[in-house]
Amino acid sequence: MGVFFDQWFGVHADLVNGGHLVKISHSAVRLYLVLCWKQDITNSRQFKLTDAEIRRRGHVSTRSLSAARKELRGAGIVRYERAKGGVYTYTLCDVKTGVPYPGEPTSKPERKPKREKQGWAKGPSFTPQFSRTESISLESDDPTSFDFGFNARTPPSLDTSSFSPFRTRKVC
Hints:
- The protein has five helices and three strands; from the N terminus they run H-H-H-E-H-H-E-E.
- The chain is of the alpha+beta class.
- It has a domain at 14-92: Arc Repressor Mutant, subunit A, CATH 1.10.10.
- Strand 2 (78-82) and strand 3 (87-92) form a beta hairpin.
- Helix 3 (26-42) packs across helix 5 (62-74).
């Protein structure tokens, strides 16, 4: 069973699985997290963000921010362009390929349709195959009509006098 959080945003799984996470600095990871958060809020693959907001949200110094930005660009994770006033236009890239995702970057990303959830009733069916010499015969429609234990035609005898949880065994 999964754990559900009140509010969350996504990070590309290949950042961790592909080994990028161990190759980049802590400041670059903080910058990437802020960029993923902003992408989720704007619901766009391209967005504008100021250095002041990144420093406030990611707790990254000005010098570290500049180095982190170059580091993410060098790793092929982010592309950016600088505008006046310390505003940058960021485009997040596919971590596997290092290029921006296809399509118009300022539009909502195209979502794949959800697969039909397979419930127990809709799941794959199993039909047992019996050889011609085998046969199954049910004497009754009752599912508890198996012939052993307490459902046997002659129930096992219980001698309760010989059992006691407090009785000690004699050791020879």
